[in-house]
Write a structure and sequence with these properties.
The protein contains 15 helices and 19 strands. The chain is of the alpha+beta class. The protein has four domains: about 80 residues, Uridine Diphospho-n-acetylenolpyruvylglucosamine Reductase, domain 2; about 120 residues, 2-Layer Sandwich (Uridine Diphospho-n-acetylenolpyruvylglucosamine Reductase, domain 3), CATH 3.30.465.10; about 100 residues, 2-Layer Sandwich (Alpha-Beta Plaits); about 100 residues, 2-Layer Sandwich (Alpha-Beta Plaits). The strands form four sheets. It has an eight-stranded antiparallel β-sheet, with helices on both faces. A five-stranded antiparallel β-sheet has the order 5-6-10-8-9. The longest helix has 17 residues. It is globular.
Length: about 450
Amino acid sequence: MSAAFADTLADLVGSAYCFAGADRGPFVVEGRTPCAVVFPGTIEETSRVVRAAAAAGVPIIPWGGGTQMALGAPPRDGALVVVTRRLARLVEHEPGDLTATVEAGVTMDALQAALGARGQWVSLDPPFPARATVGGVLATNASGPRRHLYGTARDVAIGIRVVGADGALIRGGGKVVKNVAGYDLVKLYIGSLGTLGLIVEVTLKLRPRPEADRACWALFPGLAPAAAAVAAVLGSDLLPHSVELLDEEATAACAAATDVQGVPGAAGLLLGFDGLPTTVAWQLGEAARLLGAAGAIRVVPLDPALGPRLLAFAREIHAAVPEPLAVAKVALVPTRVGPYAADCAAAARAAGLRLLTAAHAGAGVATLVLTPGDGVPPGTATTAKTLAGLRERARALGGQLVVEWAPLAVKEEVAVWDEPGAAIRLMAGIKAQLDPQGIMNPGRFVGGL
C-alpha cells in the first residue's frame, strides 16, 4: 500500500479508525493480510473509501461481524478490509407499517432488542446473533432453524442501499411492503458475498412478537425413524417454525452441551412453535402424540429457557466441536436428508473420522461437521478425500455441498463451491457490469467471481 493511499484512508475515516500495523491481526483470513482495515462511521464515508480504493486499484473485503469470513475461497493478499460495525443506527422504525430501516453494522441481537421494545421482531435467526450484523446476514444469506416457517433474508428484506464498486450509492426496493416497481435489486445483492457491492442499509419487513414460543425434544432409536417422524410432522396439521433433525453424534453432543436429556445411540428431533398461548399448547400436545406414534423413545416439552438453547445449538453446531476438521453445508430435497446423513456418517467412520449432522429438515439444509475419530489424527489428504466423497453423495441425490470452513490446505484440495452449472455465465456477466475492475471481494464467490 502506498503512503499516499494510507494517508487518504486516514483522512477519510480518521487515524483512530484506520489500522495499518499489527492491529490488522484480527482481520487476517487464511494467512492473507489486508493492506489496511478501515471503520467508516457514515454511509458517505464508506462511499468515499470505496471510491478511493477503486481509484488506487485496491481490492475490497467487506467485513460485518466476522462470523462468516471463513466462507468462500481465500481472499486476496493486500486487500482493504472495510468494517461496517460503526454503521449501527436504527434509521427508521414504523411500527404501524411493520417496517424498519437499519444500517448494515447493527448486530442482530441489538436490532431485535430495539424492535422488541415496540413488541415487534424481524423473523431471522442466523448463527451468532450477538456478533452477526444485518449487512453480513444479507451478504451471506445466513439463516437459522426458523427459516422453516419464516424463510430467509430474501423474504424479509424489501429495500437496500449499497455502495457500488465505483463508490456510487445504489438504492433498490423501497420502504413499503407492497413494492413492485423496477428490477428486484434487493435479491440480487442478498447472498452475493459482497462481490457486487457493499451493503450499507436495509429496510426489513417485521412481525408482531409472538405471545408464546415453546419447543419439544424427541429422541428416536436411530436416524431413520427420526427422519420418518419428520415426514409425519410435515404431513400433519402442525405448523412448527423449526424442524431440526440431529443425528446420533449431534444428539450426544447436544445432551453434553445443554441440560436436555439424552439416550445413548439416539437421534434427536427438535420442533419449535410460536403464536398464541392456546395454539402453542395445542401444538405441543399434538406433537407429543404424533411423535410418540412415530416411535419416539421420549418426548419432552421444553421450558421457555431451554428451547432457545437447543435451537441455538442446532444452528451453531460447528461451534460445539473444539477442533473440527471441516464444516460443510448441504442442500437436498427434504426427504433425502435422513438417508444422506446416515450414508455420510458410515463413510466418515470408514475413513476413521466422525461426522455430526444437524439439519433444518423441512428445508432440506444440513450442516456437516467432520471431526477426528478415536485413532490417529488424520492428515489433509484423508479430510479432503472424505469431503469430496460427501460432495459426490450429495450430487448423486440431486443436491449440492459447500465447504463452509476448512484449513487452507484442505481448500486447496477440495473446491469450496460446488459446480454452478450454466448459471455461471449470467453471474459473470452481472459481475462484469457492476464491478468491471473486479475489486469487490474478488475471487471468493462461486466460479472465482
